[in-house]
Sequence to fold (153 residues):
Amino acid sequence: MRKLWRAVLLAFLSLGPGTRLQAEGLPFAADPATGYALSGNDPVAYFIDHDAVPGKLAFEFRWQGAVWVFVNEGNRAAFVADPAVYAPQFSGCDPYSLAEGYATTGNALIFALFRQRLFLFYSEVNRFLFLANPDVLLAAAAQQADQLGCSLK
Fold:
């Protein structure tokens, strides 16, 4: 076990101080067990109910390599008509982390709606810090998103 930790540490140190790490994990905060985007929550429901509401398997749609589920056909139809409006920004990466120069996958239960767009956050603290200065942090996050693997393909 000690050799494993030593190998991991050496690999990390070999990256050098200027190396940027890209986001690991699945896009759009997908559940690793099911593959459903937003951990199986309906993306349209964030805007209607202001809450993470689990979707139903009967209403699904594949977009950008992820499977999205919805609470009803109306929400599915709204998403199909304009998925970029309802999908989380930065492919689900935390915008505060991006603004700081690194990428973390957001949590589908820790979110904010800002300028009628959905943002996911790694932690409650990151959400709080983002909402304290959203315009500046959003601009910084947008500059970093492509480099850190957090933009739509």
User: Anything to note?
Assistant: Confidence is low (pLDDT under 50) at residues 1-25.
